[in-house]
């Protein structure tokens, strides 16, 4: 295969966001002096770069820290340690413009606002007060996502699920963000609507050169959309690389396990390994060595040491067995 | 297979929910049957009537909130639509069990798992509490739960989602039902857990000869798990057949649209095939084919509602479409 085809020009695009050894932990319960008794370790050393114009897919099971990462990128959380640096932000603060599209459009749209106000809420938050200006921007963005301008004065409950998700996307677009975080954008939608929304996201990305961070547990959606993929397990990235490479030739045992479990059309369900542990280990006390040790089929004696990311530019794996 | 008595037989069932000055026609002539020991899938989008079908089969819809306008529903040769509540209490849980999407809401959050399991077992089987306890432990062990005693002593919130769903399956099988209705049993679970839960479900069903009616929206899951499949749209079956045949050679334009809209079906980055438009409003259904306005093959004859017709005289394989079947292949 032509290598230019597999690895698009993304590699040379400028970095707009860099995470260096980011850790986030939450105190679980406090003793009578208010000192934390224990911690939930949500993110355990994330190193990640986001380049302009790419789609970075993040996959993993529930509890692996996907949503904490989304909140961190949105600036809703501060890292406990490590640095989040924006290319055009100030002093490493999260001052860059990031917008998010949530999973459930029903609960993420304000039921009391007409949709032109919903769409321009990010602009309002940034200090825009002129109604005419906001309305004209709302009309423009709504047209781009396929919402008719006559509908601008309606309320969210008057729309179907797919249309509501379009409104949520319009809201994310209205302030011209550097990055749009898509947190499970289609998992609340029906199949036929999912296809429409994914197409819309792809069209908008081409037209406006958007940068997406796509968080999903649906591997086929990630395969369809993403240029690069990060696989997360217990607050760490265990595999990172170009989508073609990671999804076609996964190297980390966890990535393989995850992808094998995805239902595929016409592939029968085989009854091996019913009793294999499928639970994530708790994140109160982190394992000493490799985080995946307990569930790993390839575990060896020397897996008791912490693992680091290895490998080249196109695929990095946090597993020393794969060398 | 079609000669033996089906455990669930629904024939031309129509149901509507009265609403202000109108009614929502949730089911419009559903016909389906489940044979003993068979795993049958029902796929469809939201609003297609698949959950209403499941709930009505167990008579779990609130009484007097709905109106049956035609058709019949029988489970194990008993008419479920006219059965009194007293009989239903015996049927539910013993002859037919149900697994819901979100195990957290299906289990009582204020009572320990053990208490809840014993309630069901003792209600339906006349056995002592200690025998019921032993049975609960055996059931949980069958679900590959490592420490059943500990699980029985815990509250639902102490268990993970996969664990809770396994408890639900154990509970559903506690009285060895002949039919198990699973309404989106794995939607709230991760893929690795989903796979395990499905495998356990299938293993147990095959062992006990239980028939499963699986309600889902996931085409890939149906293709892996079910023997036969019904595709529903606006409260009616539009296509039915053996899973492998429906998946590899869908005949109804709606099924074709659903399958080709999956991200797996195209190269990454290529635009996906979509079904234009939206599901019609169930209170104002067109008199003709309900899919006609979204259909690329729509013809004048589509102003009349098509019925399910056998394809190539195969009674298992049916499609509700006017298009000559040859043209669709």
From TrEMBL, chain A:
Pfam families: ABC_tran (PF00005), oligo_HPY (PF08352). Residues 17-259 form the ABC transporter domain. PROSITE patterns: ABC_TRANSPORTER_1 (PS00211), ABC_TRANSPORTER_2 (PS50893). GO terms for molecular function: ATP binding. InterPro entries: AAA+_ATPase, ABC_transp_ATP-bind, ABC_transporter-like_ATP-bd, ABC_transporter-like_CS, Oligopep_ABC_C, P-loop_NTPase. Keywords: ATP-binding, Nucleotide-binding, Transport. It comes from the Bacteria. Belongs to the ABC transporter superfamily. This is Peptide/nickel transport system ATP-binding protein. The lineage of its organism: Bacteria, Pseudomonadati, Pseudomonadota, Gammaproteobacteria, Pseudomonadales.
Automatic annotation (TrEMBL), chain B:
This is Peptide/nickel transport system ATP-binding protein. Transmembrane segments: none annotated. CDD domains: ABC_NikE_OppD_transporters (cd03257). Belongs to the ABC transporter superfamily. Keywords: ATP-binding, Cell membrane, Membrane, Nucleotide-binding, Transport. It comes from Pseudomonas psychrophila. One of its GO terms (molecular function) is ATP binding. The keyword Ribonucleoprotein does not apply. It is found in: Cell inner membrane. It is a peripheral membrane protein. It comes from the Bacteria. Its main location: membrane. PANTHER family: D,D-DIPEPTIDE TRANSPORT ATP-BINDING PROTEIN DDPD-RELATED, OLIGOPEPTIDE TRANSPORT ATP-BINDING PROTEIN APPD. Residues 8-259 form the ABC transporter domain.
């Amino acid at each position: 295969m032509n290598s230019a085809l597999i690895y698009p020009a993304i590699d040379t695009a400028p970095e707009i966001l860099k995470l260096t050894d980011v850790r986030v932990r939450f105190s679980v319960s406090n003793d009578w002096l208010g000192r934390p008794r224990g911690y939930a370790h949500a993110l355990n050393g994330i190193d990640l770069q986001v380049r302009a114009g790419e789609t970075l897919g993040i996959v993993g099971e529930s509890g692996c820290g996907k949503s904490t990462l989304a909140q961190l990128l949105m600036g809703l959380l501060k890292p406990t340690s490590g640095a989040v640096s924006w290319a055009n932000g100030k002093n490493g603060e999260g001052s860059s413009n990031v917008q998010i599209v949530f999973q459930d459009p029903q609960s993420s749209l304000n039921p009391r606002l007409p949709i032109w106000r919903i769409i321009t809420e990010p602009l309002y938050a940034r200090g825009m007060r002129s109604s005419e200006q906001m309305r004209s921007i709302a009309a423009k963005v709504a047209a781009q996502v396929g919402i008719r301008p006559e509908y601008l004065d309606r309320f969210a409950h008057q729309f179907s699920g797919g249309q509501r998700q379009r409104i949520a996307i319009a809201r994310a677009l209205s302030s011209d963000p550097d990055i749009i975080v898509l947190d499970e954008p289609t998992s609340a939608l029906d199949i036929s609507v999912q296809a429409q929304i994914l197409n819309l996201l792809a069209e908008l990305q081409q037209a406006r050169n958007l940068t997406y961070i796509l968080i999903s547990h649906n591997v086929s959606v990630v395969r369809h959309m993403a240029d690069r993929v990060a696989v997360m397990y217990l607050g760490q990235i265990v595999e990172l690389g170009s989508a073609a490479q990671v999804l076609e030739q996964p190297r980390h045992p966890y990535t393989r396990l995850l992808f094998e479990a995805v239902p595929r059309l016409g592939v029968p369900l085989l009854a091996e390994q019913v009793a294999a542990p499928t639970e994530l280990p708790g994140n109160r006390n982190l394992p000493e060595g490799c985080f995946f040790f307990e569930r790993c089929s390839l575990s060896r004696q020397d897996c008791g040491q912490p693992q680091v990311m290895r490998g080249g530019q196109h695929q990095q794996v946090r597993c020393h067995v794969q060398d | 297979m079609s000669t033996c008595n089906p455990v669930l037989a629904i024939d031309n069932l129509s149901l509507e929910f009265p609403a202000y000055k109108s009614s929502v026609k949730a089911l419009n002539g559903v016909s389906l049957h489940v044979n003993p020991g068979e795993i049958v899938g029902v796929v469809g989008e939201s609003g297609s009537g698949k959950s209403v079908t499941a709930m009505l089969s167990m008579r779990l819809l609130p009484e007097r909130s709905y109106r049956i306008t035609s058709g019949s529903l029988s489970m194990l040769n008993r008419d479920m639509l006219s059965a009194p509540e007293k009989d239903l209490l015996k049927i539910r849980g013993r002859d037919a069990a149900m697994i819901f999407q979100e195990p957290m809401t299906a289990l009582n959050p204020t009572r320990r798992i053990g208490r809840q399991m014993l309630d069901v077992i003792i209600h339906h089987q006349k056995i002592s509490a200690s025998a019921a306890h032993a049975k609960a432990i055996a059931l949980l062990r069958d679900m590959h739960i490592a420490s059943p005693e500990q699980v029985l002593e815990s509250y639902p919130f102490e268990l993970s989602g996969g664990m809770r769903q396994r408890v639900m399956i154990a509970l559903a099988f506690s009285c060895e039902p002949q039919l198990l209705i699973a309404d989106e049993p794995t939607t709230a679970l991760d893929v690795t857990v989903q796979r395990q839960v499905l495998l356990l479900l299938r293993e147990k069903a095959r062992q006990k000869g239980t028939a499963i009616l699986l309600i889902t929206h996931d085409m890939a899951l149906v293709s892996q798990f079910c023997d036969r499949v019904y595709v529903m749209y606006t409260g009616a079956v539009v296509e039915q057949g053996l899973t492998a045949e429906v998946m590899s050679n869908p005949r109804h334009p709606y099924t074709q649209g659903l399958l080709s809209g999956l991200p797996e079906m195209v190269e990454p980055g290529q635009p996906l095939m979509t079904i234009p438009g939206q599901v019609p409003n169930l209170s104002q259904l067109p008199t003709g084919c309900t899919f006609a306005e979204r259909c690329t093959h729509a013809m004048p004859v589509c102003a009349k509602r098509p019925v399910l017709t056998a394809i190539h005289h195969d009674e298992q394989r049916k499609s509700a479409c006017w298009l000559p079947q040859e043209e669709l292949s």
